[in-house]
Amino acid sequence: MWFRLLVLGALVTPPCLLTPSAWGEDLSLTLRYQQETSPGSGRYHRLSRGETWAPQETALIVCDVWDLHHCLNAVRRVEEFGPRLNQVVQEARRRGVTIIHAPSDCMASYEDHPARRRAIETPKATDLPPEITTWCSRIPSEEKGVYPIDQSDGGEDDDPEEHAEWAAKLEAMGRNPRAPWKKQAELIEIDATKDFISDRGDEVWSILQQRGVKNVILTGVHTNMCVLGRPFGLRQMARNGKNVVLMRDMTDTMYNPQRWPYVSHFSGTDLIVSHIEKFVAPTITSDQILGGEPFRFQGDERPHLAIVMAEDEYKTETTLPPFAAKYLDKSFRVSYVFGSDENLNTIPGLEVLDEADVLLVSVRRRVLPAEQMEIIKRFVAAGKPVVGIRTASHAFSLRQQAPPQGYVAWPEWDAQVFGGNYTGHHGNNLKSMVRLAPDVTKHPILTDASKEPFAQGGSLYKTSPLQPKATTLLIGEIEGLPAEPVAWTFERADGGRSFYTSLGHVDDFKNPAFLRLMVHGVHWAAGLPIRQELSFASDRTAYEQHWSLMPVSHSWEAASWGVLKDDDGAGWYRCAVRLPKTWMNGQSLTLRVMPEDDVLTVWLNGVELARQTVSEAENAEVYEVPLGAILPDEANLLVVRVEDQGGDGGLRHPPVIAAGNAKLKLAGFWQFRLGNGDASWSNMPLPARFGASTDVLFEPQ
Description:
There is one protein chain. This protein has 701 residues and is an alpha/beta fold. It folds into 3 domains: 2-150 and 179-290, Rossmann fold, CATH 3.40.50.850; 304-526, Rossmann fold (3-Layer(aba) Sandwich), CATH 3.40.50.880; 539-698, Galactose-binding domain-like (Jelly Rolls, Sandwich), CATH 2.60.120. Helices cover 22% and strands 25% of the residues. It has 16 helices and 33 strands. It has a 9-stranded mixed β-sheet. Strands 22, 23, 25, 26, 29, 32 and 33 form a 7-stranded mixed β-sheet that branches. Strands 5-4-3-6-7-8 form a 6-stranded parallel β-sheet. Helix 10 links the parallel strand 9 and strand 10 (333-338). The radius of gyration is 28 Å and the shape is globular.
């Protein structure tokens, strides 16, 4: 492997052959970011804006691209994108960008390196931000979001047998298998005459200030841990006023697909990038500096699925994203596009279709600006797959009206794209039953389809007759009325595949038959094998399979909206707590928990806390927290196991941590898991600053 790594490094294209740029040429960048469709909606437009950065006011930080790592697959991915990152570094340096190499915990290897001495000798800035030397687990803007992945196992995605062999190899090399890094990977060239080496937040900040740097580009690994949290990472740069971006194709996550949300490793990275674009900083790609195309891992073979939602009738903006997250993110790279909350006839972010492979449409009677309609027509004309649900049959037409000036309709959309013939629907009071169409039981979309009829969630659409090249899969029937096609495929004139179903009512998303139909339909349209390992588990099963968010101050019966009704037994709660050093000044720390009739066991950073007293006045159990058990100014993992012995179970009153007169009430969301569990549930393999999510972090204001 290491011979191959060195060969890859030797094959890096010399910077003089990358672009014709000259020293000092401005950086013309397209910053991608996400903005809420309206305050509190929870939906986001993916937007972009152009900016021009002066190289002398810009720094590029290479974060933790170590020579070795405890995760073998992480090493392989660095091997793969490292040469491209080196090209970025070379070209940025050539234009006059300040390059800072930041391989954390490796400064001993660079003690005499000129780039390290240059960082040490940089005069300390007079405006050092508070806590610039510490890890940053969250910034205020992230409090609005739900952290998208579970990384509490450390994120390793190795094959267990390979991982064991790799750990033995590291040990034979004299390296610590859990932290084997000694320096930055040789793939990334360090210019001894110009660059800086530092892993200290105050040093990096001083370099930026001394050189007049306003703009910062973060690259390296791992996005969800070090790139976000280091003292020189995205959060610190964003909250302290730097114009910071993540280079999203020059990074990688630590995420194990065997953990929630059970998506591919690359989808895990996409979810973290999306979180960053919403709450932390915009992103760019390496081609904006090098030209060509953005980098993509060779193993990332996912088609890009764009889901476009703009209808007010069936609330698919609330049903399709969780459906896709649960059933499609494993096979697809998914982008969400929402209609404007302010202007009915515009869909911001449609430009994503120019890079998408598959389109899923849930739009109702929208006419669009000419340039937006052209994007959709261009996608269809390219022969790319289109999937439609419910109102997609009349997505871009008005009822016997001309579009407003400047807007364009597509009245032939239904016939041309889906082979349909929508003319209205039967009354909502007329309930229809859906069954398989005759002679199509062997179609791939109907794999594992039940032969038993099922009730449709909404009204039956009038869709017949279909175009000759349409193949009906399901039909809907109302007693005494003609049957209507409910789901079909269509071979378009442009050669593209289309799949459409008039199902898609909110109630349909509760029906496993519909969910299976949709998953298979999207896979078929994209030309992917039909997935047969799908599990349409109950909501209760989710609480048993993985950690889920649960509000503390309610029983788990109430907080689960009745899913765990009358559920006795064991439940586990965990959160992260960050306390300042000032709380540790010789004062004893206590944790107060009100158990009511439940039996509690409490751990802090994996150490079980002994119950010291019972406060009868507060009806609370008091646990003394040894000062050595908690890390000041760091995230600390607090776990509470609740044994419910009858009645309502759970943490119905928020625990309180106190140091003298200072108190922190742990009221809000914790992570919760149902079951007896084992010793591993009381801790994480890595420190909480790496493994805990931002949405369960508590700290004093």
